Request: fold
Amino acid sequence: MDDRKLLVLKAIVDHYIKTGQPLSSKTLLEDYGLRVSSATVRNDMKYLEKRGLIRKEYSSAGRLPTERGYRFFVDWLVQLSELTRHDQHAIMQSYRFQRQQIEELLRQTAFLLASMSGYAGFVLSPRLEETRLESIAFVKLDEENVLVVVVSELGIVEHCMIRISLSPDELQEISALINEKLRGHRLDEVRREAMQFAQGDGWHDPTLQNAFALLKETLERRLQRRLHVEGFFRLLPSLLEEGLELTKALEVLTILGDADRSSSYLESLSSPEVRACIGSENDLRELRSCSLVLMAYGFSGVVGILGPIRMDYSKAFAITSYIGNRLRTILTLSHWEQMPTLAREVD
Amino acid sequence: MDDRKLLVLKAIVDHYIKTGQPLSSKTLLEDYGLRVSSATVRNDMKYLEKRGLIRKEYSSAGRLPTERGYRFFVDWLVQLSELTRHDQHAIMQSYRFQRQQIEELLRQTAFLLASMSGYAGFVLSPRLEETRLESIAFVKLDEENVLVVVVSELGIVEHCMIRISLSPDELQEISALINEKLRGHRLDEVRREAMQFAQGDGWHDPTLQNAFALLKETLERRLQRRLHVEGFFRLLPSLLEEGLELTKALEVLTILGDADRSSSYLESLSSPEVRACIGSENDLRELRSCSLVLMAYGFSGVVGILGPIRMDYSKAFAITSYIGNRLRTILTLSHWEQMPTLAREVD
DNA sequence: CATTAGCAGTCAATTGTGGAGAGTGCTAAT
DNA sequence: ATTAGCACTCTCCACAATTGACTGCTAATG
Reply:
């Protein structure tokens, strides 16, 4: 495949991504300044069509990329665009107020992905069971209620109230024991050990055993991951423009609402490097009519963009990669560093 | 207006809500078993049209309700349908696992409204400033970090970490002072008083003043209300069926994303009784092409359904009212009551 | 006076037709 | 390998004709 053929392919993909219109041999000459005749271009197009990289919508129409064409484009032809200073600045700005609440941070990130790309943005929360325990605090609220707060590397992970009656001294004892034994352990281990305590390995006081059972249960229930999605109404027009019927397009949106199914899929796709999954490359049937651009940011969390197959991959790669790395940095820094101090709040 | 005219109106509204098709005089006779001729019905229709209750889409088409017609229907003709046992049971089921996290409960409720109605469901969170302080706990996590937890009538309302170095004794002292002075006060008062402390009315230790400033700021930032919306992709087909253009329909969805504008509007509309706001009765321009059915459930919170103007009002009223009252009950019960105990969890 | 039968008039929806325009494929020449 | 030129294909748009569903009106009826 010679250089001119590559150029023709690139022109077709670029043009179709930009305008949504098939590109004809004549327009290609005019707009991309080739110094050959349109017939030559047509011959090249025929070659590309035989290789399955472009196609026509009907016999006498211009050419547009096939999914294989997009794949080829993404793998070989795309030049990774840098974000403009302006965009970079906007991203920094929106992370300026460091939130302590991790879920809020993730929601914000999804919003950022969506608004910068013009498609839907999503963030799959980290697997908290992979993070390490910083400390667990027990607070006596009144006679029969105790507040349990679990703090991990990523900040406050969970709080819950437990109905149990313990003296301050007892609380102190438990607290010291747990923190000494479990600090630095991964939360899934913590959960396992809480279960052992609950079964009586530590104390034989049944009330206490209950407390641990509750703690374990809390960890279990709330360590569920969340999938934050933002801006999918912006996605809809793009999908419809591609000729998708409304019901199909809504299926795409609905699958994102089903966090269980989509989460595990997104995680299985992701890698530390940003990558794309185009149209029918998707294993999830409902997503076969759109494309994903995503990357992992740590602790098995994933960020990405969901758009039409005719997506501006270059821009999507740039945005996802920049924001993903940003998020990774923020989360990897100890959360103690990020906390607002008065001085910072004021400026 | 005689009984037969009312029957004709009701038939037209019922039929249009069910099928989306205008009703002709002939079909009306056949389906609703009137013992008069079609000409008579046509005369009645003419009367109703003159009163602005029904209209035609073009000169030789059947009749369909105007917005005034829906309003009349809702005010005088709608018979409030009871939810089926099955539906009631489903609602109870989904509230069976009492969540401690209020936001999770609200999200769940929005989901319930959406899935039962087939339209979009929303829940505006309570004004936390109207709830009363149960207690504030300070926990020393390590040398320089203190965890602050605010518990109100509705459960845990806020937690944050503050960067401050205090001895356990000092913490104990502050804690006792605050809880004694402020328990039972509304959170907006608490915020105000925190501000006074911050300005030095209590201690003159600058570090402490900073702590209170932070507390105040936290309360301020996080007492923002949230608008939980679920299932608005289900709303879209309904809106489009009504002949709304996609852009207009998306405007409707977008306005719900703008929590600030829509929240205050929804609150201003709501009353303790379930009520409807139909089409152009809405003050918010973007909502003029759809209808709201909503009610207040306490602490200025609102639940409701957003649907097309051609909505099944009878069903929407039943669902909103049932779920709204359910939610009110759950929140009004002291949160201590709802907490899971082992016994309940296990069964 | 309310009701009815019958007929004329209105309009949407559907189908078919024809011409213009855009673009390709092929062939023969360079 | 490239090019010019021509025939062919298919979409898109506008226009017309036909069909069918309802209504409005009028004159007759109990």
